[in-house]
Fold this sequence. Notes:
InterPro entries: CutC-like, CutC-like_dom_sf. Pfam families: CutC. GO terms for molecular function: copper ion binding. By secondary structure, the protein is α/β, with parallel strands linked by helices. It contains eight helices and eight strands. It has one domain: TIM Barrel. Strands 7-6-5-4-3-2-1-8 form an eight-stranded parallel beta sheet, with helices on one face. Helix 3 links the parallel strand 3 and strand 4.
Amino acid sequence: MPILEVIALDAQDAVAAQAGGADRLELVADMASDGLTPSVATFKEVLASVDIPVRVMLRDAKGFAPADLKQLRRAAAELREAGATEFVLGFLDAGGEIDEGVTLNLAAELEGCAWTFHRALDNSNDVFRSWATVQTLGCDTVLAAGSAKGVEDGIENLKELVAQAPPALLVGGGLQARHVPELLAAGVNGFHVGSAVRPSGWDSPVDSASVREWVNRLV
């Protein structure tokens, strides 16, 4: 069955997403920076509020290179100690290729955890070459739009990528309702939304009715 992952910023978002039928959360902070690592306190509040899986972002700067890898590793360890078992991460080097060294360095803190390689793939030099690299890194999921411009521009690439699984393809980044039938027909069964379930954008909380509408689209 298709799954719906919803971006949450706090426990209020998490509760609304679960009430709407979301299958999983991606917990982040600071969407003005495209999503950074949340605090341990926020993670604990979310964990105590819902019983669906929570994937926690490991990212400390806008863009696709870490500002302080050692601090990110400490954050990962602290989040694991607080009960996190699923994460989201992924980095590019200065040349626009998947930064295997940095990604694996941080992933070393996550032994035994499931994790998603995020949209760094879309912003790399070549999404197909990068997919082949990501397949070797140990993630179980790749969050992608198929293009840095979003799903509208990348949908044909997504149709090709889904056929190359594993890892599983989770489609997000400018995802709109009208894209869903075409993606389902191509075999995509993972969908990721953020602002699409916030009627007034990122300044408003997740709306459970909007989440339910998305869930119903995937049936």
